[in-house]
Every structure is written in C-alpha cells, then in structure tokens.
Write a structure and sequence with these properties.
483 residues; alpha+beta; seven-stranded antiparallel β-sheet; five-stranded antiparallel β-sheet; binds flavin-adenine dinucleotide
C-alpha cells in the first residue's frame, strides 16, 4: 500500500494512507494535488521566487465547504497547514514544507452591490479583480498598489495604498468576514457577530482561520484620477527628499506621494541616458477630481529639476497596475521595513546613502506616505497598531541569481538597521520576512495580549501558525496563576 509522508504541527514525519488521500480528494471540489501530479509544481509556487517549498498536499478549494473539509482533514492528522490567498507575502507563509496548503486561488469572485456601496470578495481574489469590478461602477475600496497582490493577506495585515490617507486602511473598510475557524465551523465576523474575531482579523493576519469572503465598504473614486511619476536625478536627492518631507506634512488626504529610490528602469518617458542610473521617483495619486489633483500635486513637479515627468489623468484601475511590470512573480526577494512617525534630516541621509549602495537594478527603497484617515482611528479600535506611522519604508532587495542571495540580503538588512534608530519601533506584518518572528510583539504592541486571548479562543492549538504568528495566550486560570 502506498503512503505519503507529511509533517505534523510538531514537525514529526508521519505517513498518510492512500485511502485517506482518496477520501479527502473526493471532499474538495477543486481536487487535491500531491507531488506526483503534473499541476503540483506550478501550484506550489508563490510570488517570491526565493521560496521553494514542497507541501505534501495542495487542496484546491472552491467553496466554504471545501475549506471546511481541508481544515477538518488537517485537524484529524495534525498536519502542518498553510493558507494561500494571493501568494504574495514575502515570507512565503502560503506554503508549508511537508504540510497541507489550503489553496484559495480558485476563489476569486467579486460581487458589487452598487446601491449599498459594498463588495463581497472571495478569499483568493487579487487586487485587480476587485478594482476592475468596483471601478465598473465608479467605486473603490482602499487596497495596495500592485494588482497581483492577494486581497486576503493584504487585508488581514491592515492594507494600505493610494486611497488610504483619504479612506483608511483596507481593514477600516471591512464590514464583515466569513471565516472557517480551526474547529471547522463557518463563522461570520462583524461588529455584531463574533466582535472579538472581527477586531482581531483587522490587522492580526491569518492567525484566526481561513477567510473565505470579505465584505468591503465602497466609495466613489475616479474612474479617472490625477496620477503618475516625477523623476529626479539622484544628485538632487537630498533637496528633493527634504521638499517632499515638508510638502507631505500638510498635503491634503486625497493626495499620496510615495518616494522610490532606485536605478531608472527603461521607461519610455525617460531619456535613454537616464536608464540604469540612480534616480529619485515621486509616485503620486490624487483621488479627488482631476482638476483638484493637478492643483494639489503641482508642487511635486518643482522639488528639483526633473529628468522625466509623466503625470496626468489616468484610469484609477490602470494606475493600480502601473507597478506590476517591475514587481513580477518569480524574482528573488528579501524585504525589510521600518515605520517612521517623522522623517528627520538624518533619516533622509540614511535613505540616500543606502540607495547609493544598492546592489542591483531591481533593488529599491520605497517610502510610502501614510497618515491621514489611517491615524484618525484609535490604535486599539482594530488589531492594526501602527497608525501613528506617517511614512513606511520598505527596502526591496530583489534579484534573479541565487548566487547573489547573501549580497542582496546583507544590503537590505544594513539599510534597515541604519534606518532603525530614526524609526518609531513599530512595523507592518505584511512586510516582515520569515526571520523576523521576534518583531511580532513590537508590531502589535499594546494589542498583542488581546490578540493572544482571541487566538486562544478560536485557534487554541495554533493550527494557523504559518504566518507572523500570534501564539495563543495562557488559559484564564493559568493567567491568574502566572500573575
Ligand atoms: C509586489 C508587492 C506589493 C505589495 N504592495 C502592498 C501595498 O501596496 N500595500 C500593502 O498593504 N501591502 C502590500 N504588499 C504586502 C501584502 O499586503 C502582503 O504580501 C500580503 O500578505 C499579500 O497577501 P496574499 O494573500 O497575496 O499573500 P499570501 O502569501 O497568500 O498570504 C499571506 C498570509 O496571509 C494568510 N492568508 C492568505 N489568505 C488567507 C485567507 N483567505 N484567510 C486566512 N489567511 C490567509 C497566509 O496564510 C499568509 O500567512 C505588497 C506585497 C508585494 C509582494
């Protein structure tokens, strides 16, 4: 009789009987892949090409009941379990080596209720799925800036993008979520149904169950918005970043201006002699009327002497895909991120010197301007704590040759460490690498203990541990004994 080796939650190796696998496959309508299947190799791949894990099984779920079957199967065998939404998390937590991958990539439906201004989004949908469905009605909800990112992971960690300074984080627009919890039950979390779970899901990551659907509030946006790129020579970096920092202190909430320090890609609006040279890019989007946007963003074109300007009215959904070509699937990636409440001159100097030592043409330092509506929500209103960040720096180490692994990772770590003394000590779970588990307490700060309590209630055995993990808190009687 054939058996299939797998890892348990305790990382012991056990064998699965063929008959158990066959019975499981009959319960999952999208099928279950094992290493012998032709589609297995593609299905196990995630966005970060450095992640090369081989799950024992991949359950291709198409419905809530498929997910329930997968969660119950994992519980029966105590199988190490991961959940794949869009597969974009840098740490590769969507794939468990030797475990069960609950794959939601077949669940991408988006239903828009234009009259109620809500969208119901399936747990494996990508940002582009939501943007195209909602923009057909001139509506949108705040998500990230890369259309191939998964809605699920992004939202569960917080979720910010071009609309967030005006409309808040993705979690601030989450009305309800349908979740399969570790006991295999389907629960709806909202302000009046499992409010503790609803609180925890809004920033606590994939720790509390498998979210099969999200309901978001929608807002009028576009369809055309004023957006684009202004590119400055690196020689003017200090002047430009100072001007940007001063400008962003009072910019209207509708306008977001992000900085990217990198080598210029061969964009058609840039002169050929700039291609491959270090540049400072101002990427901007104003989500009000195009006329207001043009007026509000005009100073961004005067931070220095640009070498290229490409701004104007653009379809919102189109701008949401603008960075996709630079951030395609399969590249090797290692990211490090800091939150800043303010950017001092010294912090700016660190950003510039780190960018000047960039180890490759795909590496970049991104600094998102956040604040606005995000910081007007109390830090304990949802699990997402880092609301006092005005800027989020993300060092994107990105390369293609495995021989460069250590060199690029070392650069990203150095850039992070040199910026850390100027940062505020919090962080963003969605940007943490696999070797940063210890940052979880700083990221959740005063919300961490409450998250542990909710984790104990809904996932006491820590089944959902392939994430930036919140370990279940002690049982109430133990807690009393400890204190
Ligand atoms: C190119 C790129 C651009 C990005 N841009 C932004 C941005 O603009 N703004 C921003 O806020 N973030 C951004 N991010 C970070 C992004 O939010 C995270 O990578 C996020 O985790 C991606 O979600 P996913 O579903 O694609 O990831 P996955 O890798 O599938 O999952 C990430 C985590 O969430 C869990 N998870 C996934 N789906 C579910 C589910 N349905 N139920 C329960 N748990 C689940 C997984 O188990 C895993 O732990 C970006 C990332 C990349 C790679």
């Amino acid at each position: 009789m054939h058996t299939l080796p797998f890892l348990t939650l305790d990382k012991d190796v056990r064998q699965l009987r063929e008959s158990d696998l066959e019975a499981f496959s009959r319960q999952v309508s999208g099928g279950v892949l094992s290493p012998a299947d032709g589609a297995y190799d593609e299905a196990r791949r995630v966005w970060n090409g450095s992640v090369d894990r081989r799950p024992a099984l991949i359950a291709r779920c198409l419905s809530d009941s498929d997910v329930q079957a997968a969660v119950r199967f994992a519980a029966t065998h105590r199988m190490l379990t991961s959940v794949r939404g869009g597969g974009h998390h840098i740490a590769g937590n969507a794939v468990a080596e030797g475990g069960l991958m609950i794959d939601l990539s077949g669940m991408r439906s988006v239903r828009v209720d234009a009259a109620r201004r809500t969208a119901t989004v399936a747990g494996g949908a990508l940002l582009g799925d939501v943007d195209s469905a909602t923009q057909a009605h001139g509506l949108a909800t705040p998500l990230g800036i890369n259309s191939t990112t998964g809605v699920a992971g992004l939202t569960l960690g917080g979720g910010f993008g071009w609309l967030s300074r005006r409309l808040g984080l993705s979690v601030d627009n989450l009305v309800a979520a349908t979740v399969v919890t570790a006991d295999g039950a389907v629960r709806v979390a909202s302000s009046d149904s499992h409010p503790d779970l609803y609180w925890a899901l809004r920033g606590g990551g994939g720790n509390f169950g498998v979210v099969t659907s999200f309901e978001f509030k929608l807002h009028p946006v576009g369809p055309e918005v004023y957006s684009g790129l202004v590119v400055y020579p690196f020689a003017q970096a200090r002047q430009v970043l100072h001007a940007w920092r001063d400008f962003t202190r009072d910019a209207p909430d509708e306008l977001s201006v992000w900085t990217v320090l990198r080598k210029a890609p061969p964009l058609p609006f840039l002169p050929a002699d700039v291609h491959g040279r270090d540049v400072v890019v101002m990427a901007l989007l104003h989500s009000g009327s195009v006329a207001e946007g043009e007026k509000a963003a005009a100073p961004v074109l005067r931070f220095g002497d640009p070498v290229g300007v490409h701004v104007g009215p653009t379809p919102y959904a189109g701008f949401q895909t603008a960075f996709d070509p630079l951030l395609g699937k399969g590249g090797r990636n290692y990211w490090k991120s800091n939150n800043f409440s303010a950017l001092s001159d010294a912090a700016i100097d660190v950003l510039i010197s780190s960018a000047a030592s960039s180890p490759g043409p795909e590496c970049e330092i991104f600094v998102a301007q956040v604040g606005g509506a995000i910081e007007r929500v109390r830090p304990n209103a949802t699990a997402y704590l880092g609301r006092d960040a005005r800027y989020i720096m993300n060092v994107h180490g990105r390369w293609s040759d495995a021989g460069d692994d250590e060199r690029v990772r070392a650069w990203a770590r150095r850039a992070f460490q040199q910026a850390a003394p100027h940062a505020n000590g919090t962080g963003y779970v969605n940007f943490l690498t696999e070797d940063e588990g210890e940052r979880v307490t700083a990221v959740y700060g005063a919300n961490h203990e409450r998250l542990q309590t909710v984790k104990r209630r809904y996932d006491p055995d820590n089944v959902f541990r392939m994430n930036i993990n919140i370990v279940p808190g002690p049982a109430p009687n133990m807690k009393a004994a400890i204190s």
